[in-house]
Specification:
single chain, about 120 residues, mainly beta, 7-stranded mixed sheet, 11 strands, globular
């Protein structure tokens, strides 16, 4: 079992930045593909970013490459998503997720565990 709690969502104007945090507890953190997916109304669930905590592999959706950065905290039980140059299309509920390997944005989209989500709203 992995328990995930997100924080850091909010409302910003286009071009702004937000940083999401995810605190993980429970099963061995390093055994999972950890990442973020988002769900917007009337849109398909989209895997945004993922990283294999057992190594250095990092994956991004094409829609966020160059703008979003996924990172792991020093404590290794914290995951971050730095979101820069935000666009109105980034508006969604963002979920922290954990999945067994292999690791990819598709993996975290089809999660085994997820948090409760945090709303990100980007206005034009």
């Amino acid at each position: 079992q992995v328990h995930l709690v997100e924080s850091g969502g909010g409302s910003v104007q286009a071009g702004g930045s937000l940083r999401l945090s995810c605190a993980a507890a429970g099963d061995t953190y390093s055994s999972y593909c950890m990442g973020w997916f988002r769900q917007a109304p009337e849109k398909e669930r989209e895997g945004v970013a993922a990283r294999w905590t057992g190594g250095r592999s990092i994956y991004y959706a094409d829609s966020v490459k160059g703008r979003f950065t996924i990172s792991q905290g020093n404590a290794k039980n914290t995951l971050y998503l730095q979101m820069n140059s935000l666009k109105p299309d980034d508006t969604a509920i963002y979920y922290c997720a954990a999945e067994t390997p292999p690791c990819s944005v598709a993996s975290v989209r089809n999660f085994t565990y997820r948090g409760q989500g945090t709303q990100v709203t980007v206005s034009s």
